[in-house]
């Protein structure tokens, strides 16, 4: 018989704050070395036990997250619930399970591993913060952030001071009540931005206000925390200890900012723009994070505070910040971090909570803190012009707690500052209130409500000599040549000027806050914007200079997650009264004519824009013809544009855009009208108005041809489409068409519904020409009323480096019934008078005011 060894013994000893468990373990009980074959227990050894614990915690957390995710709950809530479930309130009530899986000898190793994971997770949170944002916070955001901290702090502080007078509570509870008042006043920036990202409102109006307000709140809570640390140190030991602790913290921050930050910037400069960091660079930064954690722990601060401060000075975004986030985040957050909160639940027993006056007093202080934060945020937001519904959503966002607050609760409990019962109340209250607030936010706030039900004028209904407002979206520098030449082909002139709004779109990487900035203003400078922004701006500025006097360009840069990128596109379209948005197709073609690259995320953005943008949309499928600008600019040969017309509002819009190209000296336009054989004898007066208009203007335009193709069925339609390949460089077609015998059967094998079934067929590798698919804004919606669409809350973003247009000063509206529109073709001056102000455009300067 194999004799089993005792791996560890445990007993109670008097600790610093209370009785603690003292564990003695054999030094050679680390690796099991295959003891299972000799009848041993692998879980008696440290390494197999911690691996089994991590695996078990991971799967339990993921299962719980899968169950609560439909309720809009977060991963942090799943981790906390998993900790409670695995602890004394759940499975820990079974002695055999507790003695096997979470035996006393294994908790210490698991906690050490979990703390290292949490330390690096906080380092990642610091990387995602841009400290320069604090300089761009507007006055109103400062007041909202300060109010969301001051009121709960005052209410909680008064309650914590008054409670011992009116209630009989013990001295320990009286001591930690002020700490609860302080921590419940916080709305930490990483927690708020993570919540906004989860709910897909990070780049919404309320999302940006919450981002800036939480940044102000962070400054307040850190100042209060340092003050409390100094006071507590002075009271417990020498009176100079408080000042000495603050001095050491200040010295540590100075070393990190003025010694380590230049080093990290030097590392970032040595990383190629499109390359990855070296392994030695990564290891050096990881070692620096551990050193900062060690120093912070030495001077009396949590180790995570040191790594967090180091993370803040790391240059955010690519190439360094995003690379570090990519390398660290998944492993530490996905595997090690759940263990941090699982351990927090092991010692918490919900069923052991009593009903004494002390616990009721603690819960009263906690709830008053939440009530004060909700009220402070709501009142301040409504005072500064936010609608009551949106202000309620903002207040709920600021009330939500997350990983940072939970870690503070754990630290306070481990330090003996708060009792186990108070710790349990804090966690349970946090789970309940945050769990209720998240679905309420989703119900109350919908970013698309700002522009839903409204529209701008379509090109078809725009005065032929009026200014055409085009918004172009750029995902990469490869999109620039084709879009620039499409705008050149649009044939801007003094009689028909074009205003171009360039939106440079980038995925949010290595940063927590979304960005939308007008980069045509020289004063706007963001360190996170890569050099490609200048390249894109220069290309469109050259277009404006080449067509000086009748083409105006404004540049915007959006750095957001792909999931909410369409909101920024729609926001610019509404604010600028855009007539059509041009989107690049999500596929790029190689030289051989095959698909060279496929970007599903861009496809998702295009689909969202098609459904939500309040104007017409064009999807540009470029196969290389448009990228060669010499043909359009210098006319070595005519650039051949073919308009395929089947009828319907989308084809009318496409034909209206095509008509803008008439008269260009280097472009030939060919209109192909597909008609069914049963309609051959249609009377002239029944001819579509757009066809009639095209015929009337093509007589004086030159290089224009018109052809009627009579077909019997979809086979004939396909033959006509194939005949275009040899005589077309760019084909323009509407997106959706009514079902008829001309298209019957074509839509059965559609691959890209966003192009429509005709566009989807023309976008296959069977054809070699470029394609522009146009969708007209659906009828039945009212023209944009700027006064109702532009909330007064836009002023919160003023001066913050985030794009906003003040509703009280410079609003653009396109109101056919109320606005006064005038076009002076001789001087190139465009003016529009609206209810809120006067908008003027002096096209001679090549910019839009």
UniProtKB/TrEMBL annotation:
An annotated GO cellular component: endomembrane system
Span of domain Cation/H+ exchanger transmembrane: 59-436
Keyword Ion transport applies: yes
Molecular function GO labels: antiporter activity
Gene3D superfamilies reported for this sequence: 1.20.1530.20
Pfam family, one: Na_H_Exchanger
GO BP annotation list: inorganic cation transmembrane transport; potassium ion transport; proton transmembrane transport; regulation of pH
Region (Disordered): 828-849
Compartments (UniProt record): Membrane
Cell wall biogenesis/degradation listed as a keyword: no
Membrane topology: Multi-pass membrane protein
Keywords, alphabetical: Ion transport, Membrane, Potassium, Potassium transport, Transmembrane, Transmembrane helix, Transport
Residue ranges occupied by any Cation/H(+) antiporter C-terminal domain in the UniProt entry: 641-776
Occurrences of domain Cation/H(+) antiporter central (ranges): 495-625
Membrane spanning stretches: 47-68, 108-129, 141-163, 175-197, 209-231, 243-264, 285-314, 334-353, 365-386, 392-410, 422-441
Family stated for the protein in its record: Belongs to the monovalent cation:proton antiporter 2 (CPA2) transporter (TC 2.A.37) family. CHX (TC 2.A.37.4) subfamily.
Protein name: Uncharacterized protein
Organism: Capsicum annuum (Capsicum pepper)
């Amino acid at each position: 018989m194999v004799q089993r060894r005792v791996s560890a013994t445990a007993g109670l000893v008097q600790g610093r704050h209370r009785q603690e468990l003292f564990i003695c373990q054999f030094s050679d009980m680390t690796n099991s070395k295959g003891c299972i074959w000799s009848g041993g227990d692998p879980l008696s050894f440290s390494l197999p036990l911690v691996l089994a614990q991590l695996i078990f915690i991971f799967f339990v957390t993921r299962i719980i997250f899968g169950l609560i995710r439909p309720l809009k709950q977060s991963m942090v809530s799943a981790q906390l619930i998993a900790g409670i479930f695995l602890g004394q309130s759940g499975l820990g009530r079974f002695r055999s399970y507790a003695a096997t899986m979470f035996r006393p000898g294994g908790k210490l190793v698991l906690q050490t591993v979990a703390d290292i994971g949490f330390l690096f997770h906080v380092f990642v949170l610091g990387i995602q913060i841009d400290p320069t944002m604090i300089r761009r916070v507007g006055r109103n955001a400062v007041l909202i952030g300060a109010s969301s901290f001051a009121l709960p702090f005052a209410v909680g502080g008064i309650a914590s001071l008054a409670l011992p007078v009116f209630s009989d509570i013990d001295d320990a509870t009286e001591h930690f009540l002020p700490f609860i008042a302080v921590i419940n006043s916080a709305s930490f920036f990483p927690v708020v931005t993570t919540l906004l990202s989860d709910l897909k409102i990070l780049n919404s109006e309320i999302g940006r206000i919450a981002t800036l307000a939480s940044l102000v709140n962070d400054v307040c809570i850190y100042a209060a925390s340092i003050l409390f640390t100094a006071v507590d140190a002075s009271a417990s030991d020498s009176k100079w200890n408080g000042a000495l602790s603050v001095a050491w913290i200040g010295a540590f921050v100075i070393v990190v900012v003025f010694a380590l930050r230049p080093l990290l910037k030097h590392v970032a400069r040595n990383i190629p723009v499109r390359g990855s960091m070296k392994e030695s660079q990564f290891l050096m930064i990881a070692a620096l994070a551990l050193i900062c954690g060690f120093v912070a722990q030495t001077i009396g601060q949590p180790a995570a505070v040191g790594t967090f401060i180091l993370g803040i000075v790391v240059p955010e975004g690519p190439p360094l910040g995003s690379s570090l986030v990519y390398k660290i985040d998944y492993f530490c957050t996905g595997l090690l971090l759940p263990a941090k909160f699982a351990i927090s639940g092991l010692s918490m027993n919900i069923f052991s909570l009593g009903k004494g006056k002390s616990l009721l007093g603690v819960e009263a202080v906690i709830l008053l803190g939440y009530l004060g934060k909700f009220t402070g945020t709501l009142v301040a937001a409504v005072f500064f012009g936010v609608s009551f519904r949106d202000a309620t959503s903002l207040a709920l966002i600021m009330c939500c707690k997350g990983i940072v607050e939970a870690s503070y609760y754990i630290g306070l409990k481990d330090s003996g500052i708060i009792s186990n019962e108070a710790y349990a109340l804090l966690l349970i209250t946090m789970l309940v209130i945050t769990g209720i607030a998240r679905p309420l936010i989703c119900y109350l706030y919908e970013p698309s409500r700002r522009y839903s039900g409204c529209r701008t004028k379509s090109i078809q209904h725009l005065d032929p000599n009026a200014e055409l407002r085009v918004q172009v979206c750029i995902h990469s520098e490869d999109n620039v040549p084709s879009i620039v030449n499409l705008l050149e082909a649009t044939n801007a002139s003094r009689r028909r000027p074009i205003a171009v709004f360039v939106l440079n779109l980038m995925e949010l990487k290595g940063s927590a806050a979304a960005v939308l900035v007008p980069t045509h203003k020289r004063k706007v400078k963001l360190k996170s914007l890569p050099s490609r922004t200048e390249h894109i701006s220069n290309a469109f500025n050259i277009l404006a200079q080449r067509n000086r006097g009748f083409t105006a360009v404004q540049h915007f840069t959006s750095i957001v997650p792909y999931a909410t990128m369409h909101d920024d596109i729609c926001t610019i379209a509404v604010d600028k009264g855009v007539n059509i948005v041009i989107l690049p197709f999500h596929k790029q073609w190689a030289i051989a004519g095959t698909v060279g690259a496929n970007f599903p995320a861009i496809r998702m953005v295009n689909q969202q824009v098609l459904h939500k943008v309040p104007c017409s949309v064009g999807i540009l499928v470029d196969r290389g013809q448009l990228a060669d600008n010499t043909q359009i600019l210098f006319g070595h040969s005519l650039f051949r544009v073919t308009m395929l017309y089947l009828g319907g509002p989308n084809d009318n819009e496409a034909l209206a855009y095509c008509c803008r190209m008439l008269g260009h000296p280097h472009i030939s336009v060919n209109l192909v009208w597909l008609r069914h054989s049963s309609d051959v004898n249609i009377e002239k007066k029944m001819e579509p108005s757009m066809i009639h208009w095209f015929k009337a203007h093509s007589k004086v335009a030159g290089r224009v041809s018109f052809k009627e193709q009579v077909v019997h069925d979809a086979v004939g339609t396909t033959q006509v489409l194939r005949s275009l390949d040899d005589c077309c460089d760019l084909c323009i077609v509407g997106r959706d068409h009514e079902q008829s015998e001309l298209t019957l059967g074509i839509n059965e094998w559609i691959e890209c519904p966003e192009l429509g079934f005709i566009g989807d067929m023309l976008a296959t590798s069977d054809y070699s020409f470029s394609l522009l698919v146009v969708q007209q804004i659906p009828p039945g919606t009212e023209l944009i009323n700027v006064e109702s669409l532009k909330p007064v809350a836009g002023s919160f973003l003023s001066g913050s480096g985030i794009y906003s247009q003040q509703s009280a000063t410079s609003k653009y509206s396109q109101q056919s019934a109320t606005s006064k529109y005038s076009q002076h073709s001789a001087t190139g001056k465009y003016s529009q008078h609206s209810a809120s102000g006067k908008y003027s455009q002096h096209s001679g300067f090549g910019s839009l005011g």
